[in-house]
Design brief:
- The structure holds three protein chains of three kinds.
- Chain A is mainly α.
- Helices cover about 75% and strands about 0% of the residues of chain A.
- Chain B is of the alpha+beta class.
- In chain B, the strands form five sheets. Chain B has a seven-stranded mixed sheet, with helices on one face. In chain B, strands 14-18-13-17-15-16 form a six-stranded mixed sheet. Chain B has a four-stranded antiparallel sheet with strand order 4-5-7-6, covered by helices on one side.
- The radius of gyration of chain B is 23 Å and the shape is globular.
- Chain C is mostly helical.
- Chain C has a domain of about 170 residues: MetI-like (MetI-like fold), CATH 1.10.3720.10.
- In chain C, helix 5 packs antiparallel against helix 6, helix 9 packs antiparallel against helix 10 and helix 12 packs antiparallel against helix 13.
- The longest helix of chain C has about 35 residues.
- The N and C termini of chain C lie close together (about 10 Å).
- In chain C, about 45% of the residues are buried.
- The chains are: A mainly alpha, B alpha+beta, C mainly alpha.
- Chains in contact: A-B, A-C, B-C.
- At the A-C interface, helix 3, helix 4, helix 7 and helix 9 of A face helix 1, helix 6, helix 7, helix 10 and helix 11 of C.
Chain lengths: ~280, ~525, ~325
C-alpha cells in the first residue's frame, strides 16, 4: 500500500510547516522578543505600529506583538491538551463501543450523544462555571466536549474495519480479540482519528479564543488572543491594530491545522490516490 | 495622539468641574438654559438596564428607580448643591434629638384621584417597617421607631436614637404610596403616586410610558407631555440611538468616546458631577492586611492619576474621599497627598516585618473589565514596592461568595450612595454593619461613626467630618482612588437636565426647545 | 412503527437526559446561588427569603421533579433575579435567534453549495483551486473576529449598516434586515465555506460513480448530469451538515449575539449561567435542545425523502 506524495501531500506538508512555525514562534518568541506582554506604559497607550513594534501598542501601552506571541503559547497549549485528553478518553470508549456493539455500545454512546447534543460553547461554559476558569480547566472542559466526537469517529472506523473481509476471516480462524484490534482494526482507524484530531485542534483554538472573548476562558493577566479581541473592541476605530493582529494570528493557527487535516485526509485515504 | 489624549482629559475634567461649580452657584432650576421653559413634547429616554420592580419598598435595581421616581414623590429632595428641598413635605424641623415634625403640602393628589394626606405617609412607613412585608429597604430605616399623623397635613417621626442623616436617607428612599392604590393594583407592576408623571404602560423588555399628571402639586410642572423609557442592550446601541434620533436622552457613553462626542455638533451633554466613589477594599479581617502598616503601604504605592487616565480615560475625578468637589461635603483631605511614594511604602513594609516577596490576591468580577484593568495597573504599581498582586477575575457568583466569606486580600468596588458620607462610611466600616466586607473592627472607628450619625446639628457634623475622613484614610481598610463622573448626553433641544447626588432623573424640570 | 415515529420517540429520553445533565451541573456549581443573585443586597434574611421562595433547600431530586412537572405543564417558572416568567423571556428572544439562524443558513446554502458544485464539476481548474483556497480560509476565520472586522469596515468605516441592536420584523422589515445583515453575513461565511468544501467532496465522490459515467456516455449535458444525478446524491451529507449547523447556531451563536448586541437566546443563557440563574439555564437549554432535536428529526425525515433506501429500513 504505497502512498504517493501527490499534490495533496503538498498541502499536508504546507499545513505541517505552518503549525511547526507557529509552535516555534510560541516557544521561542517569548525568549527572543524584547517587549514584555504585561509591562504597562501609560505614555505609549494606543500607539500605531512602527518598524520596532510592528503590531502597535494596546490601551495600556503593552506591545501587541509580544502579547500575541505569548498568547500563542496559551492557545497551542489548550489545543494540544484538550485534544490529548479527548484522545485518551475517546479512543478507548470508541474502540470498546464499536467492537462490542449491542448493549455495551448503547451504554457508552447514548450518554455521549447527550453530551454532543449541546452546542460545544454552551457545554464548555457550563462546565467551567462548575470547575472554574483558567488554562487547565479550559483544556479539561474542551477535552470533555471533544471526547464524544472522537469516540464516534473511532467507533465508526471500528465498525467499518470489522466488516472488512480479512478481519472476518481472521476471526473465523480463531484469532483472539485483542490481536484483532491491534493488528487490524487500530491501524485502519488511525487515519480518521488523526484527521479528526487535527480538525479538533483547529476548533480548540477557535473555541478557546471565543470563551476568552466572552470572559469565561483564560483570565487576565494570562494573555489570550480572545481576550485581546474583547479588550480591543472598545478602541477599534481609534486603534484597529489592536483587533486586526490578534485575529490574524488566530486565523493563521487555525488555517495551519486545517491544512494539515485536509492534507492528511487526502494523502492517507487510499481512495483518493486513484483520482 | 498620545499627548493630545492626556491634554483633552485634563481639560475636559476641568470643564466638567468648572461647569458643575458654575451651575451650582446659579439661578433657580427652572430658568437654566435658553429662555423660559416650554410646555409640551415627548422625551425618549434610554437607560442602562431595564426596570424590574416598581415598588419603592424594594428599590430593586437602579433602573427601576429611574422610572418610578418620576411617578412617586418623596418627602424631601436634594439638589446639586446638597441642599435639601421640599417635596411632599413643605417644611420640617427637629423638635428634639429623636423627634422630627414634617408639614406636608395640601394640594397633592394621587394618580387614582385620592388626595394626599398625612395618613399616606403613615401608611408608607408602617408598610416599610413591618417585618412581615419583608421589604428590603427596611434595613435603611432601622432608627425610625414610628410615624404618626398629628394633623391632616402634618406628621411626627419618632426615632429610637438620634439620627443625623435622616433627611439624606429620606431624600434617597421612601417614595410615598397610597394604601388604596397598593391594595388595588400590584405596586411591583403598576406604580401609583403623586408624582409629575402618571404611569401609562409597561411593555416588558421594551419600554415604559409615562404621561403628564395634570394635577401635580407643583403648578406649571411638569413641562413634558410624555416620557418614554427604553433600555437597549448596550452602550453602542444607546449611543447610536441618540445619534440617529431614536432617543433624545441617554444615560452613559463609553468613556473613550467622551472626547469625540464633546466635539459633535448634534449632541450635547450635561455638566459632569462625581457621584460614584471607586475604591479598593483591603481585607482587614486576616493577615497580612490586618496589619495597618501594610494597608498604608498600599495607599502610599498607589498612583491614582495613572489608573484614572489609562482605565477611565480621565472620566473619573482623582480623589481620596467619597464626596469630592463640588459636593458640600468635600474636604480636600488626603493623608497620602504625595503618593505614589515608593520609598515610604517600602519603609512601611520593612517596618511591618516583611522580608522577601509579599503575595496578595486581587478579587474582581470578570464581567467588569474596567476593574480588571484597574487591577492590572495596580499590579504594576505594587510591583515597584515589592508586592506581587495576583489578579483573579471570577464570575459574579463567586465574587460575592468571596466577598461575604472574606476570602480576598484586595477587592475593587464602587458604591453609589453619596448624598451623605455617613451612608458610605457607616455600612463599609462599622463593625456591626452587614456590608462591612473587609471585616474592619475598631472601637475608635465605631465611636466616631456613631457620633457622626447621632449628631443632629448639620454644623456639628460638618465640623467632625474632615477628621473622620483623615481617620479612615490612615487607619481604615478602604482606599478610595477615584469617583466616576456622572454625565448625561442628549439632543441639543433638551433643557434642564442635571446630575444629582441622589442619582435621580428628575424629569419634572426638563423641557424641550 | 414508522421511521418518523421511531425517531420522534427517541427525542423524549434525549431531552430528559439533557435537562438532567444541566440540572446536575448547575447544582454542582460551588457557592450559594442566592448570594450570587442578590449581590450586595445579600443580607442573611434576604438570602433566606430567596432560598425559601425557590425551594433551594429541598433535596435535588425533589427540586428536579418540581421543575420537570412545571415544564411538562408548560410553566417554566420565574427567574431568580427579576421574577420574570421564563417562558416569556425565552419567547421574546427566540425570534431573534431563529431569524438570524434562518438568514445565515439561507446565505450559506445559496453561496456554498453552488460554489462547491462548480468546483467539483471543474476539478483541477483555476476556479477550483481558487474556491479551495477560499474555502480553506473561510473555515479558518474566527466568527467573532470576522464580525468585528465587518463592523469596522462596513459599519464604523463606511457607515453602510448598523453595528448593533435589533428591530423586530413586524415593526420595520427593512430595519430588521439591516440590523441582521452583518451578523448573518458573519455566521454565513464560515458555514458557506464548510458547505462548499463538503459539496465539492460529495460531488467528486459521486461524479465517478457508475450511473454518472453512464449518463455522460448517453450524451446528457453536463448541467443535466449535475442536477439530476450528482446533486441528489450529494444532498444527504449536505443536509446533514446544514442540520448540524442550524443546531449549533440556535444555541451557539453566543459570540455573534454579543458582538452585535442582539437580544438572542444564546446571550441570555450565557448571562444566566454566569449569574447562577438556574431556572433560566434549565429552561433555555431545554428549549434549545428541543429545537436542535426537531431540526435533526427534520433532516432525518428529509433523508427519507431524498433516498428511498433509507425509508425502507
Amino acid at each position: 500500500m504505497r502512498r504517493r506524495l501527490g499534490r495533496r501531500g503538498g498541502i499536508a506538508l504546507a499545513g505541517l510547516a505552518v503549525v511547526v512555525a507557529l509552535a516555534a514562534v510560541a516557544l521561542l518568541g517569548p525568549v527572543v522578543l524584547p517587549g514584555s506582554p504585561t509591562a504597562i506604559a501609560s505614555d505609549r497607550a494606543l500607539r500605531a505600529p512602527t518598524p520596532r513594534e510592528p503590531f502597535g501598542m494596546d490601551d495600556l501601552g503593552r506591545s501587541v506583538l509580544s502579547r500575541v506571541v505569548h498568547a500563542y503559547r496559551v492557545s497551542l497549549d489548550v489545543a494540544l491538551t484538550s485534544v490529548a485528553l479527548a484522545l485518551v478518553a475517546g479512543v478507548p470508549l470508541g474502540l470498546v463501543a464499536g467492537y462490542a456493539e449491542g448493549l455495551l455500545d448503547q451504554l457508552i454512546m447514548r450518554p455521549l450523544d447527550i453530551l454532543m447534543a449541546f452546542p460545544a460553547i454552551l457545554l464548555a461554559i457550563a462546565l467551567m462555571s462548575v470547575f472554574g476558569t483558567g488554562l487547565l480547566l479550559v483544556s479539561v472542559s474542551l477535552g470533555v466536549v471533544y471526547t464524544p466526537i472522537l469516540a464516534r469517529v473511532v467507533r465508526a472506523a471500528v465498525l467499518v474495519a470489522k466488516a472488512e473481509v480479512y478481519v472476518e476471516g481472521a476471526r473465523a480462524l480463531g484469532a483472539p480479540a485483542g490481536r484483532l484490534v491491534l493488528r487490524h482494526i487500530l491501524p485502519n482507524s488511525t487515519t480518521p482519528v488523526l484527521v479528526q484530531a487535527s480538525v479538533l485542534m483547529a476548533i480548540a483554538i477557535l473555541v478557546e479564543a471565543a470563551l476568552s472573548f466572552l470572559g469565561v476562558g483564560v483570565q487576565p493577566p494570562t494573555p489570550s488572543l480572545g481576550l485581546m479581541l474583547a479588550d480591543g473592541r472598545g478602541f477599534m476605530l481609534q486603534a484597529p491594530w489592536v483587533v486586526v493582529f490578534p485575529g490574524l494570528a488566530i486565523m493563521a493557527a487555525v488555517l495551519g491545522f486545517n491544512m494539515l487535516a485536509d492534507g492528511l485526509r487526502d494523502w492517507l485515504d487510499p481512495g483518493v490516490a486513484a483520482r | 495622539m498620545r499627548n493630545a489624549a492626556r491634554a483633552i482629559g485634563r481639560r475636559q475634567w476641568l470643564m466638567g468641574a468648572g461647569a458643575a461649580l458654575a451651575a451650582g452657584a446659579a439661578l433657580p432650576r427652572a430658568s437654566r438654559g435658553q429662555g423660559s421653559p416650554r410646555r409640551g413634547g415627548t422625551l425618549r429616554v434610554a437607560t442602562v438596564d431595564k426596570p424590574v420592580n416598581m415598588d419603592p419598598g424594594y428599590a430593586q435595581l437602579y433602573s427601576s428607580l429611574q422610572v418610578y421616581q418620576n411617578v412617586y414623590n418623596k418627602l424631601v429632595y436634594v439638589d446639586e448643591r446638597g441642599q435639601f428641598l421640599p417635596g411632599l413635605a413643605r417644611s420640617w424641623k427637629a423638635v428634639d434629638d429623636k423627634t422630627w415634625v414634617f408639614d406636608l403640602v395640601d394640594n397633592a393628589v394621587f394618580h387614582n384621584g385620592e388626595p394626599f394626606t398625612a395618613k399616606d405617609v403613615v401608611y408608607t412607613f408602617t408598610r416599610l417597617l413591618d417585618p412581615a412585608n419583608k421589604l428590603p429597604m427596611r434595613v435603611f430605616f432601622t432608627p425610625v421607631e414610628g410615624v404618626e399623623a398629628t394633623g391632616p397635613h402634618q406628621v411626627r417621626v419618632h426615632l429610637n436614637r438620634p439620627f443625623g442623616p435622616l433627611l439624606a436617607t429620606l431624600s434617597q428612599a421612601t417614595e410615598i404610596v397610597n394604601e388604596k392604590a397598593v391594595k388595588e393594583k400590584d405596586p411591583k407592576l403598576v406604580p401609583i403616586g403623586t408624582g409629575p408623571f402618571r404611569f401609562v404602560e409597561w411593555v416588558k423588555d421594551d419600554h415604559v410610558t409615562l404621561e403628564r399628571w395634570d394635577r401635580y402639586h407643583r403648578p406649571g410642572k411638569p413641562y413634558l407631555d410624555r416620557l418614554v423609557f427604553y433600555a437597549p442592550a448596550d452602550d453602542t446601541v444607546r449611543l447610536t440611538g441618540l445619534q440617529t434620533g431614536r432617543f433624545d436622552w441617554i444615560q452613559t457613553v463609553p468613556p473613550q468616546r467622551w472626547a469625540e462626542l464633546e466635539r459633535a455638533g448634534d449632541i450635547k451633554s450635561s455638566a459632569g458631577r462625581p457621584y460614584f466613589p471607586f475604591f479598593f477594599m483591603l481585607n482587614a479581617s486576616k493577615p497580612p492586611l490586618a496589619d495597618r502598616r501594610l494597608r498604608q503601604a498600599i495607599a502610599w504605592a498607589l498612583d491614582r492619576a495613572e489608573i484614572v487616565k489609562l482605565v477611565y480615560f480621565n472620566t473619573h475625578a482623582v480623589t481620596a474621599e467619597p464626596c469630592p468637589e463640588p459636593s458640600p461635603w468635600a474636604t480636600g483631605v488626603n493623608a497620602h497627598k504625595t503618593a505614589p511614594d515608593v520609598e515610604r511604602a517600602k519603609a512601611l513594609l520593612r517596618e511591618a516585618g516583611v522580608t522577601g516577596e509579599l503575595r496578595l490576591s486581587y478579587w474582581v468580577k470578570s464581567q467588569v473589565p474596567v476593574l480588571v484593568k484597574t487591577g492590572e495597573i495596580l499590579r504594576e504599581q505594587l510591583r515597584k514596592v515589592g508586592i506581587t498582586l495576583d489578579v483573579q477575575p471570577v464570575e459574579s457568583g463567586q465574587y460575592f461568595e468571596g466577598l461575604v466569606g472574606k476570602k480576598f486580600d484586595i477587592a475593587a468596588a464602587w458604591w453609589s450612595v453619596t448624598v451623605d458620607p455617613d451612608l458610605f462610611y457607616y455600612p463599609m466600616q462599622h463593625s456591626r454593619s452587614p456590608w462591612n466586607f473587609t471585616g474592619f473592627k475598631s472601637d475608635e472607628a465605631d465611636k466616631r461613626l456613631d457620633a457622626f450619625r447621632a449628631a443632629v446639628d448639620p454644623a456639628a457634623r460638618k465640623k467632625m467630618y474632615p477628621e473622620l475622613v483623615r481617620f479612615f484614610q490612615e487607619e481604615g481598610s478602604l482606599v478610595i482612588f477615584s469617583n466616576e463622573i456622572q454625565r448625561y448626553w442628549m439632543k441639543p433641544a433638551v433643557q434642564g437636565v442635571v446630575p444629582l447626588p441622589s442619582l435621580e432623573l428628575r424629569f419634572e424640570d426638563v423641557w424641550r426647545l | 412503527m414508522s421511521y418518523a415515529g421511531r425517531r420522534l420517540l427517541l427525542v423524549l429520553p434525549m431531552l430528559f437526559g439533557m435537562s438532567f445533565l444541566i440540572f446536575a451541573l448547575m447544582r454542582l456549581v460551588p457557592g450559594d446561588p442566592a448570594v450570587a443573585v442578590l449581590g450586595f443586597k445579600a443580607t442573611p434574611e434576604a438570602v433566606r427569603a430567596l432560598r425559601e421562595t425557590f425551594h433551594l433547600d429541598a433535596p435535588w431530586p425533589a427540586q428536579y421533579a418540581r421543575w420537570l412537572a412545571g415544564a411538562l405543564r408548560g410553566d417554566l417558572g420565574v427567574d431568580f433575579r427579576q421574577n420574570e416568567p421564563i417562558g416569556a423571556m425565552i419567547l421574546a428572544r427566540l425570534p431573534v435567534t431563529v431569524e438570524l439562524t434562518a438568514l445565515a443558513t439561507a446565505c450559506a446554502v445559496l453561496v456554498g453549495v453552488p460554489l462547491g458544485l462548480l468546483g467539483g464539476a471543474r476539478r483541477g481548474g483555476g476556479a477550483d483551486r481558487a474556491s479551495l483556497a477560499v474555502g480553506l480560509v473561510g473555515v479558518s476565520i474566527p466568527d467573532f473576529w470576522l464580525g468585528i472586522i465587518l463592523i469596522l469596515l462596513l459599519s464604523l468605516g463606511a457607515r453602510l449598516l448598523p453595528s448593533s441592536g435589533f428591530v423586530p420584523l413586524t415593526e420595520d422589515p427593512v430595519a430588521n434586515l439591516r440590523h441582521l445583515a452583518l451578523p448573518a453575513l458573519t455566521l454565513a461565511t464560515s458555514r458557506a465555506a464548510v458547505l462548499g468544501r463538503l459539496t465539492r467532496a460529495a460531488v467528486l465522490d459521486t461524479v465517478h460513480r457508475g450511473y454518472v459515467r453512464c449518463a455522460r456516455a448517453k450524451g446528457l449535458r453536463e448541467r443535466a448530469v449535475l442536477w439530476r444525478h450528482v446533486l441528489p446524491n450529494a444532498a444527504i451529507p449536505i443536509v446533514t451538515v446544514v442540520g448540524l449547523q442550524v443546531g449549533y447556531m440556535l444555541g451557539g451563536a453566543i459570540v455573534v449575539e454579543t458582538i452585535f448586541a442582539l437580544p438572542g437566546v444564546g446571550r441570555m443563557t450565557l448571562d444566566a449561567v454566569l449569574e447562577r440563574n438556574y431556572p433560566v439555564v434549565q429552561s433555555a437549554v431545554l428549549v434549545i435542545g428541543a429545537l436542535f432535536m426537531l431540526v435533526n428529526l427534520a433532516t432525518d425525515l428529509l433523508y427519507g425523502v431524498l433516498d428511498p433506501r433509507i425509508r425502507l429500513r
